[in-house]
Amino acid sequence: MSAVIFFIAAIGALAGAIGVVALRNPFYSVLALVEHLISLSALFLLLRAEFLAAAQVIVYAGAVTVLYVFVVSYVGDGTVPLGPGGARLRNVAMLFVGMLFVELCIALLGSGLQAIDGKGAPYVPGFGSPEAIGEALLTKFLFPFELASLLLLVAAVGAVMLARRRQGGTTLDDVPYDATRYITPRSLFSGTMAEAVGALKPPIEEPTKPRPEAPVPAPTRGPSPVSDTSEHSQED
Amino acid sequence: MSTTTWGWLVLAFPLAGTIIIGLGHKRLARGPAGAIGTLAILLAFASAVASLVSLQDHEENARQLTSSLWDYAVTGSVDARLAILVDPLSVFMMLVVTGVSTLIHLYSISYMKSDRGNARYFAYLNFFVFSMLVLVLAANFLLLIVGWAFVGAASYLLISFWYRRDTATKAGIKAFVINVVGDVGLVLGTFFILRHSGTLDFLGTFHAVEEGAFASHDGALVAGCLLLLVGAFAKSAQLPLHTWLPDAMEGPTPVSSLIHAATMVTAGVYLISRMHPLFEAAPAAANVGAIVGCATLFVAGTIALTQTDIKRVIAYSTMSQIGYMIMGVSAGAYAAGMFHLMTHAFFKALLFMAAGSIIGAMAGAQSLDKMSGFKRSMPFTFGCFVVGGLALSGVPPFSGFFSKDEILAMVGAREGWFTVLYVVGYVGAFLTGIYTWRMIFRAFFNRPCEEAVELEHGHIAHAEYPTNPANGEREDTDVGFPGPEHVIAERAMPMKVAMGLLAVGATILGVLQIPFVTEVVTNFLEPTFEDSKYVHLHASDGMIWLGMVLGTVLALAGIAIAHFIWVRKPGTSAALQARFSGLHRFLVNKWYFDELIDFLVVRPWAALGTFCRTWFERAVVDGVFVGGATGVVRAGSAAVRAIQTGFLRYYAALLLLGGGAVVLYFLIASS
Amino acid sequence: MDLGWYLVVSALIFCIGAGGVLTRRNPLVILLCLELMLNAANLALIAFSRMHGNADGQIFALIVMVVAACEVAVGLGLIVAIFRRKLPIDVDELKELQG
To answer: What is the pTM of this model?
Structure first.
């Protein structure tokens, strides 16, 4: 039974991996990564690492990929054609990778690692459970635990510093909110939040007349060349 | 106190003088510096006298005393100690050096009183006396070389004392370079001797020579002695390393009188005397010394006949007289040579001091062409010149007569080809008379020149602006140049005292070695020279009488001829110059030695230097070595830089490749 | 399953991730492939932890996850900054740091 689940999870993981690498649209790559992470989580469960499996799903598949999604949507899909010399590099890369895989397999299987043929140590109840992990973290691995927290702090601060806006630029707060840039016009009393917060002013003279004449910019989907650059010149 | 302690004190006083004046030169300038300097040397002289007295208390055959202060490096083959040797020869030299130095310091107090570098002068002068005493008192080759080098350095410092004069600095460099050539000879000679004698100590070396350490290494001994002779020739200004001495007259006159008449240039004579066991065991070298000494005395005598700078005349006369000394000590006449050294120190220093006086009267000019008729206005200086001139020419009863004749008698007593040297020596004596009295007659007789007339009216002449006497360039009287005041002996008591004492010495010192009557110097120096094989060399009575008569006749004849040419018939010298113009030109250009050395040594060396700079330095060193090294580094870094393409994926590929290689290594290693 | 299988899967995922790092030009996707490699390492660590029977490997894997999260945060911040400067999001174009 476990063999079946193993094969399903393994094939899922590999498919996800290949998808990350091969798909052109980065958004789809992110989705493939999510699939890969969930398969890996299944593999972790098979290896009795319950806490890690849960952490994988929550942290990795949950938080990290969401971060990726945010950035992908900000930056855009960036589909670029293959540059000069790209095909040759791809072939060489495949060659390298193939060699590396062969090497690793020989290393793992052929070098006589002990117990690689077995299923591992006898199962102790509580192995891989949160209690066991927590105990290890707070006794034996206290120092790495503290350091990891410090690292998280540093990374958080670093990310903010990297991505912040520099002096002299305009932020969204400086520009008065112009609803017409973001909101497609709806008819009055259609229940939009803009109307509810009072950002959508009904026309003064004709309360009952719908207002289709307000000039609106074309709905933006992804970065449009003209307006986005002007927007960025304001922000940076 | 023991004899050697007095010896150490003799060294200590001038050293203390140098240090005190040197450190306090700003506050001690003018008066105190001169007083401290003179006092230091006076105390040294007193210590030398005390060491003499104390030495004579010892027994005759126990008068070679050494004292070592500490050992520098005493190993199997080298024994370097700070040791002095107090024996009759070194005490004799000490007395001469300190005695004459005291008088010269006294003279300098007046002469240099308006000079801005007064304290520096006395510091240097004390340093010189200290170095000379180190040289004389040294008990081993090491300290001798140290003293030798210091003396050369002091000479350089003092020749280029007026350092803002180009001529002075060039002369200082010339002197120093030629002295260094001599230093090299000295050191190499020491090495040749040390190899077989096994010790640096003098007494030890002489012992080794006696024992036959050089019996089968004759060549090494001759080579060593010849190299020592090179050192002696450079220091004593003998052919062919003599060209620095006339140019050294750029220094102040007291410096010329101390260093280049009385003391430093006699270091070569001292060296040969001290090393007499070595030279006697290597007769070839001794013969070379005698021949060179003889040649020098003749050449220098002929050149002195034509020089017009008064100091250069006296300088060539020094060269000539030292030629006598070197000839004498190389031929085995040690006591005679040392006696002539002593008398020469007195009358030559006197002549230089008197020359300084007359230069002062001439407001700094030194040319004989401009001087005449000072007899009435400078009687004291004239008297000193006369005394010195008579002593130099060898007129009895002045001291020069006795010392010069004794040398020539001993040389003649050697027989064989030494007779040639004997004859040339008398020719030289004849020339000496002529050139000395040429100088005196031209400067003091005939119609008084302008400056003399001014002096008769009671004030010293002043030039409109100070000039360099050598090339007539205009200069000022700031530091590095002579001071504004000119001093003459008649008006400065210290100068009078110093010159008077020297004149007295020049007159009466002859009594020390009157033939058949007294032998004070010989007896005194006997403990040092008793192991010499020439200790029983005596001229026959007939030769001694012949020599005395001949010497007197030649000297008087020289004076008479000079009187005729330059006083009685004043146009004669111009006529002679016109008739023998080729010879005259040859002599005025100093036998073209300067040009010869320039052609043989200076130009090839300069060409070598230029060649090295333009070709070797540029192509080989800069091009191949430096350029090559940088080129290799640059090429290597360019090759390595090629890895830094800036492509991220390229770096990632390299990373993976490296990782794969490591795994591969471990795979292979573990299988 | 034998542990060897897990290790082979881990090696395969690692190599696929390496291939992606070498091949793709969008830095975002390169970061994703980097995630793949880190995950492969995690899998191997947990497999070994199962083999030894103690939780050391799992702690290691947990810390690796923390590090991966930090690295993603900083890397994405970099990409946002690059985008803000109107530079192309293409690692082949961003090659000023060269010799």
So the answer is: 0.68
